[in-house]
Design a protein that fits this description.
CATH topology of the largest domain in chain B: Cytochrome C Oxidase, Chain A
Number of domains of chain B: 2
Radius of gyration of chain B: 26 Å
Number of strands of chain B: 2
Order of helices and strands of chain B: HHHHHHHHEEHHHHHHHHH
Structural class of chain A: mainly alpha
Helix content of chain A: over 70%
Distance between the termini of chain A: 60 Å
Largest interface: A-B, 45 and 65 residues
Number of helices of chain B: 17
Shape of chain B: globular
CATH architecture of the domain at 62-193 in chain A: Up-down Bundle
CATH architecture of the largest domain in chain B: Up-down Bundle
Largest sheet of chain A: none
Strand content of chain A: under 5%
Order of helices and strands of chain A: HHHHHH
CATH superfamily of the largest domain in chain B: Cytochrome c oxidase-like, subunit I domain
Number of strands of chain A: 0
CATH topology of the domain at 62-193 in chain A: Four Helix Bundle (Hemerythrin (Met), subunit A)
Radius of gyration of chain A: 21 Å
Strand order of the largest sheet of chain B: 1-2
Structural class of chain B: mainly alpha
Oligomer: heterodimer
Strand content of chain B: under 5%
Largest sheet of chain B: 2 strands, antiparallel
Shape of chain A: globular
Number of helices of chain A: 6
Chain lengths: 193, 629
C-alpha cells in the first residue's frame, strides 16, 4: 500500500519543519560563515610570518568546562520540559543562565590575562585575532543569554510545557551551537597559536 | 521523519486570524508585513537608487567624454565639487565611480532585484499565505531603508562619500588621510553596509525557510517554477557569502578606528612610518572577493530565473531542459564559491594558485552556457509573443552571451595581466551583470506589473523603452572592449597626460553621448510605470496565460493571497502547447484526471492508479479537483 500511495496523483503535503526553527538553523549557518571567514583569515595571515607567539590564557580551560556544564544543564531543562517537570525546568534554565554569565566573566579574565602577557588588541595581528575571536563569540553568547532570560521568564509564566516546546527548543539549539562554537575556537587556537 | 506537525496547526490559525485584521495606514503601507507590499517598497527604492546610480554615471561620463568642457552649469547641484575653472574635482570623480558601483551592485541589483521579486513571487508561486516571518521581512526592508539613508547622506558630506572604488581596498580605505573619501564618507559606507548585510541576511533566511517549509500540497521541488529555484539558490549564496563580507568590513573598522594591523603594514606618510606592522592588504582582498564573486551571481541568478519564466510563457513552450536548468544553477552556485581569486590574478599571489582559480573559472562558463543554450532552444520555433517583458528577456540573453564571452578571456590569468583594471573589465561586467541583470529586472517589472497593480503597462511605450535601452547599452559598452585592449585604465579621471589614448578621444565622447541618451530613455519607463499604476488598462486575471500559481489569486490579492483554500498543485509549470490539450497552456492547479486528452502515458497510469486507490478506500474527490476554473 505504501509504495502505491507514493504514486498518488500530485497533491501531497511536502516535507517541512517548523519555519522559525528552520530559520534559526539558517541564522546559525550565517554565524558559522562569519567564524569560518575569521579563522581562515587567521591561517592565511599566520602563514605570512611576523607572527607573535604567546601562551593561551589558562582560564580558557575553565570557561570551556563551564560552557560544557551549561549545555548539560540546558539539556536537563529540556528533558524536564518534555515531562512537564516545571520546577526542574525553571531551576535548570536559571542554572544555565548563571553558567552563561560566568562564562562571560571568565572570558573577561582571559582578556586580563592576555594584557598581563603584553598581548593587546592593537599590535601584532596574532594578538588582535585573539580578541576578535573571543569578542565576537562573547557578543553572540550575550544574545544567547538574552534569549535564555526570555525563555526563563516564559517558563516562570508557565508558558513552556510539553505541548509548547518550540521556543525552548530554539533556545536549546542556539545554546548548544554557542557551546560547540566555543569548543571549535578553543581547539583551533590550541592547535594553531 | 519530520512531518508538518505543530506548524500546520499554527499556519491554519494564522489563516483565520489574518482575514479579520484591520490595517491602519501605518501597518498597511509603512510597516507592512505583507510580502507583496514589502516587494513594492523594495521596487520603488530600487528604482530610486537606479536613478541616483545612473545620474552619477552620467556625471562621470561627462568628465570622461568631454574632459575640456566647462562644467559650471552643474554648480547648482554639485556646488564646490566643480572648481573655479569649471572642472570636476578629481577626488569627487573617484567618489562618483565608487558610489555608482556600490549603489548599482548592492542597492539596485541585490536589494532592488532580489528584494522585489523574491518577496513578491516566492509565496505566490509556491502557494503560501506569506513569508515564514512577515515581521522579519518587514525588518529586512527597514534595515535596507536605514542603510540607504546613511549611504545617501554620505553623498552630501564636505569631504565627499567613500572614494576608494566599490571594493574599498585598504590601505586606501583604511587611512583617513589617504584621500578625502576615506574619512567620514568611508565610515558611513561601512555603517550603511552593515545594515545592508543584516537586511540581506534576514531576507535570505526568510526566502530559504519559506521555499523549503511552506510549499502547498503537491508543490514538490521538481514542480517549482525556475524563478523560485533561482531565488532560492540566490538566497543560499547570500547566506554563505555575506557573513564573510561582514568579517572583512569588521576588521577594516578595527584597522580604521582602533589602530589594529589586520590589513595595514609598513606605511609611510610624509616620511613618517605609521605604527601598524604585520598587516596584509591581500588578506582583505581574499575576504572581500569571497563575497564579491558570489555577489555577482546573487545579482545574476534572479534575472536568469525571471528570464526562464518570461521566455517559456511567451514562447508558449516548456522551458527547454528544466532539469538541466536546475543542475546548471546548482553548478553555478557551488562553483561561484571557488573562483574568487580570479579578481586577484595580479595581486602578487602564487601563479600556480592563479592557475587553479583560472581552471575553476573556466568551468563555471559551462553551466552558464547551458542556460543560454536552453533559452535559445526554448525560443526556437516557439509561438512567440513579443511583450515588453519578452523583449527584455531576449535582450538579457544577448547581453549575457556578449558579456559571458569576454569573461572567458578575463578568466585566463595570462591575458588578465594586460586586461586587469582596464575598460575591458568594465565592458565585461556591465554587459553580463549590469545590463543582463538590469534587463531581467525590467522584464520582471513588465511581466508582473499586472499582478502587482491590477493594470497593464503601456505596451508601445515598453517597446520604445526596450529598443532605446538595448541599442543604447551596446553603444555605451561595446566600444569599451576596444579602449580596454588599447590599455585605458579604469577609475582614471582623465587620460590627457598620455598620448597613446588620443586615438580614442572621439570614441569616449561617443560613449558619453550614448550614456546620456540611454539614461534619458529610462524616463519613458518611469512615466509608463507610474502612469499605468493609476490609469493603465485594467488587467485580466491571467493576461499572459501563464501556468504558475500567482495568476490564480484575485486581481488585487489581499494579505493571505487566496481568499479561500490555497490551491494544490498537480503538475509542473511548463505545460504549454501540450499536444492534444484544449488550450495552449494548462495551469499547475489542473489535475491530471481533468486532461485525459493530453496526458502522457505515464500520467494516465497515475490517474488510473488514483482512481483504483480511491475506489478501494471509498474516498470522494479532493475538494480542489471539483473547483477547476
Amino acid at each position: 500500500m505504501e509504495e502505491r500511495l507514493a504514486f498518488v496523483e500530485g497533491a501531497e503535503q511536502p516535507l517541512s519543519m517548523h519555519p522559525k526553527k528552520f530559520a534559526l538553523w539558517l541564522f546559525i549557518v550565517s554565524v558559522v560563515m562569519v567564524f569560518a571567514g575569521m579563522t581562515s583569515a587567521y591561517i592565511v595571515r599566520q602563514s605570512e610570518g611576523n607572527w607573535l607567539e604567546f601562551d593561551l590564557p589558562n582560564v580558557f580551560w575553565y570557561t570551556s568546562g563551564i560552557i560544557v556544564l551549561s549545555s548539560l544543564s540546558m539539556h536537563w531543562s529540556y528533558l524536564a520540559a518534555k515531562k512537564d517537570n516545571f520546577n526542574t525546568l525553571k531551576l535548570g534554565l536559571l542554572i544555565t543562565t548563571l553558567l552563561g554569565i560566568s562564562f562571560l566573566i571568565g572570558q573577561w579574565y582571559s582578556w586580563e590575562a592576555l594584557v598581563a602577557e603584553d598581548v593587546y588588541f592593537v599590535g601584532n595581528p596574532a594578538g588582535s585575532f585573539m580578541y576578535v575571536f573571543t569578542g565576537l563569540h562573547a557578543f553572540h553568547l550575550i544574545s544567547g543569554v538574552i534569549f535564555l532570560i526570555i525563555v526563563l521568564i516564559s517558563s516562570l509564566r508557565n508558558k513552556i510545557h510539553s505541548q509548547n516546546l518550540p521556543q525552548l527548543e530554539m533556545c536549546v539549539t542556539y545554546w548548544h551551537f554557542l557551546g560547540g562554537l566555543w569548543l571549535y575556537l578553543f581547539m583551533f587556537l590550541l592547535l594553531n597559536h | 521523519m519530520a512531518v508538518a506537525n505543530v506548524s500546520a496547526h499554527d499556519v491554519s490559525n494564522h489563516d483565520h486570524h489574518d482575514h479579520e485584521h484591520k490595517d491602519n495606514f501605518i501597518t498597511k503601507y509603512i510597516f507592512s508585513t505583507d510580502h507583496k507590499m514589502i516587494a513594492k517598497q523594495y521596487l520603488i527604492s530600487g528604482m530610486f537608487w537606479a536613478f541616483i546610480g545612473g545620474l552619477l554615471s552620467v556625471l562621470f561620463r561627462l568628465q570622461l567624454g568631454f574632459p575640456e568642457m566647462d562644467l559650471s552649469f552643474l554648480r547648482p547641484i554639485l556646488g564646490g565639487w566643480i572648481d573655479s575653472a569649471g572642472k570636476l574635482d578629481p577626488n569627487f570623480y573617484l567618489a562618483l565611480v565608487t558610489m555608482h558601483g556600490t549603489i548599482m551592485v548592492f542597492f539596485v541589483l541585490t536589494a532592488g532585484l532580489s528584494g522585489t521579486f523574491s518577496n513578491f513571487l516566492i509565496p505566490l508561486q509556491i502557494g503560501a499565505r506569506d513569508m515564514a516571518s512577515g515581521f522579519m521581512n518587514m525588518l529586512s526592508y527597514w534595515f535596507f531603508f536605514i542603510s540607504g539613508v546613511i549611504m545617501f547622506a554620505s553623498l552630501f558630506l564636505e569631504k565627499g562619500p567613500a572614494a576608494g572604488g566599490w571594493v574599498v581596498y585598504p590601505p586606501l580605505s583604511a587611512l583617513e588621510q589617504a584621500i578625502p573619501g576615506s574619512g567620514l564618507g568611508m565610515t558611513l559606507w561601512l555603517i550603511a553596509m552593515t545594515f545592508f548585510i543584516a537586511s540581506s541576511l534576514m531576507g535570505g533566511i526568510n526566502y530559504i525557510t519559506t521555499v523549503i517549509n511552506l510549499r502547498t500540497k503537491g508543490m514538490s521541488f521538481s514542480r517549482l517554477p525556475l524563478t523560485i529555484w533561482a531565488f532560492f539558490l540566490t538566497a543560499v549564496i547570500g547566506l554563505l557569502s555575506f557573513p564573510v563580507l561582514f568579517s572583512a568590513a569588521l576588521l577594516l573598522v578595527f584597522d580604521r578606528s582602533f589602530g589594529t594591523s589586520f590589513y595595514l603594514s609598513d606605511i609611510y606618510i610624509g616620511g613618517e612610518a605609521l605604527p601598524n606592522t604585520g598587516g596584509s592588504a591581500v588578506l582583505y582582498q581574499h575576504l572581500f572577493w569571497f563575497l564579491g564573486h558570489p555577489e555577482v551571481y546573487i545579482v545574476l541568478l534572479p534575472a536568469l530565473g525571471i528570464t526562464s519564466e518570461v521566455i517559456a510563457t511567451n514562447s508558449r513552450k516548456p522551458i527547454f531542459g528544466y532539469k538541466a536548468m536546475i543542475i546548471s544553477m546548482l553548478g553555478i552556485t557551488i562553483l561561484s564559491f571557488v573562483v574568487w581569486a580570479h579578481h586577484m590574478f595580479v595581486s602578487g599571489m602564487n601563479p600556480f594558485l592563479g592557475s587553479i582559480f583560472m581552471f575553476l573559472t573556466l568551468i563555471i562558463a559551462v553551466p552558464s552556457a547551458v542556460k543560454v543554450f536552453n533559452y535559445l532552444t526554448t525560443l526556437w520555433r516557439g509561438n512567440l509573443r513579443f511583450t515588453p517583458g519578452m523583449l527584455f528577456s531576449i535582450g538579457l540573453v544577448s547581453f549575457f552571451i556578449s558579456g559571458g564571452l569576454t569573461g572567458i578571456f578575463l578568466g585566463n590569468s595570462a591575458i588578465d595581466i594586460q586586461l586587469h583594471d582596464t575598460y575591458f573589465v568594465v565592458a565585461h561586467f556591465h554587459l553580463v551583470m549590469g545590463a543582463a541583470s538590469f534587463f531581467g529586472m525590467m522584464a520582471g517589472v513588465y511581466h508582473w506589473f499586472p499582478k502587482m497593480f491590477g493594470r497593464m503597462m503601456d505596451e508601445k511605450l515598453g517597446h520604445v523603452h526596450f529598443w532605446l535601452t538595448f541599442v543604447g547599452v551596446y553603444m555605451v559598452f561595446f566600444p569599451m572592449h576596444y579602449i580596454g585592449i588599447a590599455g585605458f585604465p579604469r577609475r582614471y579621471y582623465s587620460w590627457t597626460n598620455f598620448s597613446f589614448t588620443d586615438m580614442y578621444t572621439d570614441l569616449n565622447m561617443f560613449v558619453s553621448v550614448a550614456s546620456i541618451i540611454t539614461f534619458v530613455a529610462q524616463f519613458i519607463f518611469i512615466f509608463n510605470f507610474f502612469y499605468s499604476m493609476y490609469k493603465g488598462r485594467k488587467a485580466s486575471l491571467n493576461p499572459w496565460q501563464s501556468n504558475t500559481l500567482e495568476w490564480t489569486t484575485p486581481l488585487h490579492p489581499a494579505h493571505g493571497n487566496w481568499p479561500g483554500e490555497i490551491p494544490s498543485v498537480y503538475r509542473w509549470p511548463y505545460d504549454y502547447s501540450k499536444p492534444g490539450a484544449k488550450e495552449d497552456f494548462i495551469p499547475q492547479t489542473v489535475p491530471l484526471s481533468a486532461t485525459p486528452e493530453s496526458n502522457l502515458p505515464h500520467e494516465n497510469k497515475l490517474v488510473q492508479l488514483e482512481k483504483e486507490i480511491m475506489a478501494e478506500e471509498g474516498d470522494v474527490l479532493v475538494a480542489n479537483e471539483t473547483k477547476e476554473s
